Amino acid sequence: MPSTYTPPSRIFPVAVVVPALLSLSLVIFAHERTLVPLYGSGPTTYLLSSIVLVAMQASALHPFHIPLNRNLLYSALTLTLAPNATYWVGVWTSRRKNPLLGPAITHAIVLGPQAFALTTFLFNTSKDSSRPRTVYRLLATVISWQLTLSLAHQAWSQTGFLRRISDSQIYLNLACLLYIAWIASPFTTTPIQDMKKQPLTTTMTSGAKSLRLVLFAILWCLAHSRLTSPILPHPLPEPYTLMDYPLRILSSVQSNTGLISVAEILPRTTQPEDPSENSDVQSVRYLRASHSILGGVWMNDKIHVIDDEPPVTDSSGTPLGDSIYATFVLQEAVRLVNSTSNQMQEGLIIGLGTGISATAFQRHGLVTTIVEIDPAVYDAARQYFGLPDPGPDRVFLEDARAWVSRRKAEIDLTKMHTPFDFVVHDCFSGGGVPEHIYTLEFWNDTKSLLGSEGIAVVNYAGMAKSESSRMIFYTLLAAFTQCRAFHDLTDANGLSPDAYHTSFINIVIFCTNSNKPLMFRKSRKSDYLGSPLRRHVLAALESREVNLSSILDADDSQRYVITDKRNPLGRLQEAQGHHHWSLMREVLPDINWETY
């Protein structure tokens, strides 16, 4: 007998489809937000959409009948388990140190069943209605998949109030609604009745339903706190200190670029029982963005100064030591450029981090303008890392591409003097990049904000001799006439020829359009600001130079130039992002990444 086509109204009743799609999109959003601090955005999203599609297609194609009331219960149960399952399975897989396989296993174990159950609502749940043809189910699944991913990645991620709602609240509120719908459904069959295909002859009275709802409300209130995950509330109302590990979380907030937190590893009073807990890392405060360290400073007994110079203090007066990363100090070498005729007076910072270089420039008396996309990063730098107030109209919390374009338009319109002597561009995070601010068009716009001898200082993190590094260098040389680069390794002479291919390092690139060769003077005592790290890095600047000729060896350099129309940088950085994840797991013990 030929199969009959079921009208769309029977396949997709709006009262069922819309809540199901909204719920699934929120589940994907919460699942991804839970895992990004454990794995970073690249590894987390690498196979997520594919696994969701497979689960949805399995739900659409399976031959079994799942009644509506039964699926309400199944969906509620999967969401009830989701807060702890997502966190603990993610923790367990991340400890296996595989940034590709770990997230995939977590998606399959935790998110797969949720996507399967919620997708079941999209199709007929009545035994009397025939299922639509396979082709229509597949088509409907793909459309639903695209809609839910769009909502999860575009709508919900830009919704401000969701940043103040925990992932546990999202899961458990949806589960609560599903339990209520299950209890209030017209009838409820038991699994035994359904297997025996016995007709249900009684319906639940309104009084019985009310009693069950009251009992459910009591049980739900008693169990709710135990069903939530151990993830901290965001924003964190007060500092949180672990009981059995010397770690204090000072601040943690969901912001427009993800989870931004400030943590401090306290001095140890005893040696750890587990050797993997890296007892050498202590007395340090760091700024974390998801699974990346944006910067940090040494604390307590690891604060050292030279010439009795008082250390920088945070907003509460707590002394702060040197930066844990030398790359920020290396950026300050722009002050040592002596091939320009004008004395430097004003600088632009794109990408703030902990504000190490921005603070140093202000201590040297330079007027500093800051462009930072994430307000939480700026707030953390001001409160916890000693960044001084740059002054009125000197802080812009927005995307750098839009800000630079707007300033260029103002300069072109008013013919005003170009305001900046140098720009420091440091936007690498988690092994990835905001690729739209590395194109030739962006650098050409940025040049318009610099004088004729202005200098662009660009931080690059990755393998020195990689496809992405060649793209960065060739694009900069397409915008500027000359560039020099320096590494931040502890050993100034530590960048061996083999390390160009294998070591994940920070390289600071200095570029200019000046007619004079780009030269740096010798550092002196006043450049160090009482910092042993500055003396160590700046005094050996020449020894840190990267051999660009060994990197810029392509026959066709034009194909490496990044433009708005041709920009593979993000895709190329994904592979290095996986390597960066592994490096971060070596820098800090697992428990530091698992507490957020």
TrEMBL record:
Per its UniProt record, what Gene3D superfamilies does this chain match? Vaccinia Virus protein VP39
Q: Where is the signal peptide?
A: none
Sequence intervals crossing the membrane: 12-31, 43-60, 72-92, 104-123, 135-156, 168-189
Q: Does the keyword Nuclease apply?
A: no
> What's in the keyword line of the UniProt record?
Membrane, Polyamine biosynthesis, Transmembrane, Transmembrane helix
Q: GO biological process: what's one of them? A: polyamine biosynthetic process
Query: Which Pfam families does the record match to this protein?
Result: Spermine_synth (PF01564)
Q: Where does the source fall among the domains of life?
A: Eukaryota
Q: What is this protein called?
A: PABS domain-containing protein
Q: Which species is this record about?
A: Amanita thiersii Skay4041
